[in-house]
Amino acid sequence: MTIKVQGLLHVAMVTEDIDRLTDFYVGLTGAEVAKRLELTTPRFAEGVGVPGATATTVHLRIPGAQTVLELTQYDRHVRPGDTRAPSNTTGLRHLALAVADIAAAEAELRERRLEVVGGPVEVDAPAVARGVKFLYFRDPDGNLVELIEPPAAPGA
After folding, report:
1. How many other C-beta atoms are found inside a 10 Å radius of the C-beta of residue 14?
2. Please, are residues 34 and 25 in contact by the beta-carbon 8 Å criterion?
3. What is the per-residue pLDDT across 69-84, written as a single tens digit (0 to 9) for each?
4. CB atoms within 10 A of CB 147
5. Bridge pairing between strands 10-14 and 68-74
6. Which helix (H) or strand (E) holds 110?
7. CA dist 122 → 103, 131, 155 (Å)
8. DSSP bridge pairs for 59
9. Residues 142, 84: contact at Cβ < 8 Å?
10. What's the predicted TM-score (pTM) here?
C-alpha cells in the first residue's frame, strides 16, 4: 500500500533568529509573510516530539511557488555538529528556487556579500538537463540554497 500524497505543502528550516531569516528571505525573494504563529500548546510539543517545546513559526509565500517556506524558532535549540556541511552530506541539504536570470541573481548575492559556494554553471549533460544554469549559496544561517535558471525555450 502507498500513501496517497496530495502535494508538497512546505519546506521547514529551524533557526535561532526568526526575524533575521524572515527579513533575509523576504528581502532576497520578495516573499510575503502568509502567517506568523506562536506555538505554545502541549499538543504542539507532543506533535513535534519535543516535551515542553514552544516555538514561533513564519510561513513565507515566495512569488511563483506553490510550496510554503516555513521558518521556525524554538524556545530551546539543539545545535547540529556542522551547520555548514557540504552539499554531499547525508540529509536534507538545500532549498532550490527558480530564477529568470542567474547572472543577475549572482550579482545580487555578491552585492549582499553572501557566500556563493559553487557556480554558476550551465549543465551540458545529460541531454535532458542541458542548458539549465545553477549556483549554490549560503543563507545567513549557513543553509545551502540553490538558484536554478531553466533553459530558454526552443526558438526563444
Report:
1. 18
2. no
3. 999 999 988 777 766 7
4. 24
5. parallel
6. helix 102-111
7. 11, 6, 18
8. 35, 70
9. yes
10. 0.85
How many DSSP H helices and E strands does the chain contain? 3, 8
What is the rounded CA–CA span in Å between residue 79 and residue 36? 23
Read off the C-alpha cell for 16: 535561532
pLDDT tens for each residue of 22-61: 999 999 999 999 999 999 999 999 999 999 999 999 999 9
Q: 51-54 contacts: CB < 8 A, separation 24 or more?
A: none
pLDDT tier, 108 (very low <50, low <70, confident <90, very high otherwise)? very high
Question: Whose grid coordinates read 526552443?
Answer: 154
* Residue at 105: amino acid letter: A
